[in-house]
Amino acid sequence: MSADTSFAKRSNRAAILFLSPALLFVFAFVAYPVAYAGWLSLFRWDGASMPVFLGAGNFVRLAGDAIFWQALIRNILVALSAIVLQVFLALAIAYCLVRIVPAFSRIFLFFYLVPVMVSEICIGLLWRFMYNPYFGLVNAGLSAIGLGGLKRGWLGESETAFTAVVVVMSFTYLGLYVLLFVAAVRNVPESVYEAAEIDGAGDFRKFFSITVPMVWDAVRANSLLAIIGSLKTFSLVFVLTNGGPNHASEVVSTYLYKMGFGSFEMGYAAAIGFAQMVLTALGAWIAFRYMKRIGAGAGAWS
Amino acid sequence: MRLKRLLIAGAAAALAAMPASAGELSFWHAYAGQQDKVEFIDFALGEFAKAHPEVKLEVVAAEQSAYKTKLNTAMASGNPPDVFYTLPGGFLNAFVKGGQMYALDEELARDGWRDSFLESAVSQTSKDGHTYAVPVDVDSVVFWYDKARFAENGWTVPKTYEELLALAEKVKGEGLVPFSLGNKDSWPATFWFQYLEMRLKGSGVVSAFVNGDPDATLGAEATKAMEKLAELAKQEYFPIGFNGMSDQEANMLFLNGQAAMMLNGTWQIGASADAPEGFELGYFAFPAVAGGAGDQSDVLAGVAASFGVSQKAENKADAVTLLKFLTSREVMTKYVELRKTMVTVKDATTETAAGPVLYDISNKLMKAAGHLDPFYDTAMPPAATNIYYTSLQGVLDGSLPPADAAKRIEDALRAK
């Protein structure tokens, strides 16, 4: 018994020793900045003069700031689009790659992954060229198929700017989810599909009644990834439209950046960042809980 | 999170760059990235090392947009460099308000240093009668066009705003874009608003707000200027999707000949360096607006950069020596030659160094101007600039009524 406890103690000590570098980094680069941002959000500070204590002033202002709420709604729209256009589309593609054209799955997978491997800034700049109203590929393509009337200044008009950005986001991250789902779909036992085929199930039926429920855990994890990524998205919006025109494609992170490093309202920017963190955590938690319930339901049906 | 990390990184960089003992100076500048900037600073610092071997410089360079954040962070963390490059206007005033800038009044009064600068330039780096930085270069805004193109089509340079609109209509009739504009980063459209406001109401409107003049107002003219701007966009005189295009993309349209004119700063001379064969860059002043209360000869021209000394600098004598050297006529003439930009030091913008177009602007247009009005967006406090930018995008986009935009900007300027 005593030998056991001393072993436990010893291994505890070793575990703490091995974990300490990571803990140190987490503290220095996560815990401390978060706490500091929380503290800073109570002040008005232009970065140069002495901070002025405001109490909850920044949060009161935030609550009444229409631009912030519109930006947040856009973040939520990005998240919803990500679940449909990234996660579920990726699952469908993964099914096709694994079940329908397995011979080409590797080469297709490679192409889907290219945008994931390129930096977001480069993707953004490439798409800026594609969207250029005068020599861009998008307008040229529309003319080529006889839809010249649909030509727009995609990134520069408030009606289209946000949609144009969402398209780029979906294109960029789709490959990542395809990769993750291919692994999950491959793990579904062949025998289940064989049984379904004997019963005369087609690809649609197999996809919805076998693949989706069998990989539901992966769907849940990937949706969570997509939601978190969407709520803090920054670089693509920043490069493509900088949140413009007149906040038409503003998301929370670009608004934070503008307030912090455009207006030098550091305290208010910290308040935005703090609110964003809390809302992201909350959103992720709700989504996770909700999908768990659906998952349990789906399991019961199948 | 991202913000905090940037702050920490910046603070760490500031700490690393700080140790300045006697005979040592830390010097931060933003002459990085672009070839002409690097050439200039290498020349200037090389010459300084030869002339003053007793002063050791600890030089930190950053690219313009990153520099602003970097300097702000260093100032905020209480570890400012001794001598540094800074933008005039709202950016500098924030440091002045925080008591971080050393007033150079005494040194400027000595040996005619102050008289070596254009007075209008020094006033842009002064606040409440004290000068906190020495101005370096001046940019002014004019209409640019391709002379060869205009001659070929029989277009003539407009003298009045009506003529400008008539010309725009003619250009549009040819299937071309009259005015190139890439307003993604919002500053290019400010020139249009500011010139219209200057012509309609007069110069010094925003400066009055910044100087705390209780009678300061944009006036009903601001709404009128915004209406004219909205009209230009509605008539499709700007490129398609201009609010999403960058200034470089707009410049491409201009140099390719897809757009006929461009309202832009004197940096357009450098930006037109790789224009296609046969392109002949010319300029004309913003035309007179009939019935406008402003002096119709006024020019939008502002100090683009300046050098200041930190209040905390231990070695102010050496710091001033460095500033005097950088703003000497020899160094500044080299600046004009390398960067094709006008400078604030009198007689340094020589014809040989500047080239014919820039020399003409400096010697004729600017000399004949009733007033030189500094850029609104840099003169304003940063928070107001942000609102100014988005309001202009909204008016051009048709999503914000002109009167609301004018009110938003006026309110932002009044807020303290």
Characterization of this structure:
The complex is a heterodimer of chains A (302) and B (416). With 302 residues, chain A is mostly helical. Helix content of chain A is 76%, strand content 1%. A two-stranded antiparallel ribbon of chain A has the order 1-2. In chain A, a hairpin with a 7-residue loop joins strand 1 (43-44) and strand 2 (52-53). In chain A, helix 3 (66-100) runs parallel beside helix 7 (161-186) and helix 3 runs antiparallel to helix 10 (216-231). The longest helix of chain A has 39 residues, at 2-40. Chain A is globular. Chain B has helices at 2-16, 35-51, 64-76, 90-97, 105-109, 119-123, 147-153, 161-173, 187-200, 205-210, 219-234, 247-256, 268-271, 316-326, 329-339, 351-354, 356-368, 376-379, 382-397, 402-414; strands spanning 24-29, 56-61, 83-86, 126-127, 130-131, 133-146, 177-180, 259-265, 281-284, 299-309, 342-343, 372-373. Chain B is globular, with a radius of gyration of 22 Å. Chain B is built from 20 helices and twelve strands. The model of chain B is unreliable at 8-21 (pLDDT under 50). In chain B, helix 1 crosses helix 3 (64-76), helix 9 crosses helix 11 (219-234) and helix 9 packs across helix 19 (382-397). The longest helix of chain B is centred in the first third of the chain and has 17 residues, at 35-51. At the A-B interface, helix 1, helix 12 and helix 13 of A face helix 1, helix 3, helix 4 and helix 19 of B.
Would you tell me which CATH topology of chain A applies? MetI-like fold
* Tally of individual domains of chain B: 2
Largest beta-sheet details of chain A:
2 strands, antiparallel
Q: How many beta strands in the DSSP annotation of chain A?
A: 2
- Largest sheet, strands/sense/barrel of chain B: 10 strands, mixed
Nutshell version of this structure?
With 302 residues, chain A is an all-alpha fold.
Q: What attributes characterize this protein structure?
A:
heterodimer, A: mainly alpha, MetI-like fold, two-stranded antiparallel ribbon, 13 helices, 2 strands, 76% helix, 1% strand, B: 416 residues, alpha/beta, D-Maltodextrin-Binding Protein, domain 2, 2 domains, ten-stranded mixed beta sheet, 12 strands
